[in-house]
Amino acid sequence: MKKILLNASALALSLGLAAPALADYDLTILHINDLHSRIEPINKYDSGCSDKNAAEGKCFGGIARLKTKLDERRAALSSEGKNFVTLDAGDQFQGSLFYTTYKGKAAVEFMNLLGFDAMAVGNHEFDDGPKGLADFIAGAKFPILSGNIDVNNEPLLKGKVPGTLILEKGGQKVGIISALAEDTDVTSSPGKGVRFIMAEDYLKGAVDALEAAGVNKIIALTHEGITRDKQIAASVSGIDVIVGGHSHTLLSNTQKRAKGPYPVLVKNPEGKDVPIVQAYAYGKFLGEIAVKWDDNGDVIQAAGEPILLDASVAEDKDVKARVAELAAPIQKLKEQVIGSAAATIDGSRNSCRSGECAMGNLVADAILEATKDQGIEIVIQNGGGLRASIDAGKVTMGEVLTVLPFQNTLATFEMKGAYIKEALENGASKLEEGAGRFAQVAGIKYSFDASKPAGERIVALTMADGSPIDEEKVYKVATNNYMRGGGDGYKVFAEHGENAYDYGPGLEMVLADYLKAHKDYQPKLDGRVTAVK
Q1: Strand partners, 273
Q2: Cα angle, residue 429 at apex, residues 427 and 433 outer, rounded to 5°
Q3: For the whole model, what pTM was predicted?
Q4: DSSP SS3 for 458
Q5: What is the rounded radius of gyration, in angstroms, for the C-alpha atoms of the chain?
Q6: Looking at 318, 347, 364, which one is the last position of a domain?
Q7: Residue 182, domain member (yes or no)
Q8: What is the DSSP letter of 468?
Q9: What are the tens digits of pLDDT across the range 215-248?
Q10: Which residues, 6+ apart, have CB-to-CB distance to 424 below 8 Å?
Q11: Do both 233 and 266 map to the same domain?
Q12: How many whole angstroms separate alpha carbon 411 and alpha carbon 200?
């Protein structure tokens, strides 16, 4: 379409006629990503918000608050005669007791209620295998997209996951294309019947097909992470805007903790700027970007800012009542006090995926204590398995389950010392991406150099007492069942672990028991993981 418009204008001018006057086209994109089952409001640590915090106006997000702001913004845009679209960049699943209890049923109910035009499949949508995603799709009243996954060999999903969508907005066609992180088979449980291809390979073909169909306004709705989104923008022509998720990146022009401007601009192969947006995670922000295209289908303006959903945004009464109804059966479990913390236990994504973090130490120490009678000497826990911080004071079971929502169980095995370093190299291999495989440990200590190539980053490794690790000695190791089976890139565990036993109990119970036994727990950083600068 872009070429046809240019040729028509050139032809009109060559005949001495006035070129056809075509108006610019405006579209506002409202978007969220990585809600992770935070259906109720959250506190500043992304965990459940207490009644006390709520009374003090210290809560953020929650589905009821998101409903209010979405309705408000869409009504305002409609009254101004503006076009808009509402998108979700994936990962509705996993992260709170709502998911543990209801799986995708609660998520799809509220998604339908909020009114989305499209959603990208996130990697965690596969956490309960193909059936979990299939059930979610069956209940959805909106398209769920992912173009770079091949589900032809998975009967539960075959024919149910389109990669492209064309929307009619304000008399214009808007194309939506989607792609999912290629390592989802490592970070989740898609099953053997689902295959992943490089996003660029799919997206290039999808853009060509849309342009051939006369669509020259194309949005990529991705669950790839900010690093991959930048790579995609730089290598795929024809994408006008990328609305992303997966890396939980806060892009903003006003927030102090932002990781970049909103939008981030990356030049495509033709040298045109491609705006990229992402709105952190957990429903704390509603992204809003206004995009203007010229009559050639080129973006000439993109501006906006994520909206903080704090206490100044009222909660929708009907939605709040429905949330309370669903929360009632699990409220007693959430409110059970299992211990206390002398200070905030930092389990933030930024901390636990880049170095030693207090939550990593706590969970690893809890695993070590729970398995000491079995002679366990080393614990390795993935930072991505830790999903929230816990603030000072009483600690409830609800908070513990928010930190460890994956229902992983304790797993043990035996492995030669030579493979311990290999496992830690895997943990440090994707530091730049903030990948969840980063290793939190107990029983050992190590140093890494992020400036070195992946696979060569572990520069020192000893037991916790400073004694060297014997490469030929067989050590007893504990982790979680997901990692023990090779999850998060830990193939070395699956391939070289011996006498493996995924015996349980759940990690959340291991942590709860540890906090019960260590009253007024004092968080600590003791140098077991250090970065070489």
Answers
A1: 267
A2: 100
A3: 0.79
A4: strand
A5: 24
A6: 318
A7: yes
A8: B
A9: 999 999 999 999 999 999 999 999 999 999 999 9
A10: 380, 439, 441, 446, 448, 458, 461
A11: yes
A12: 37
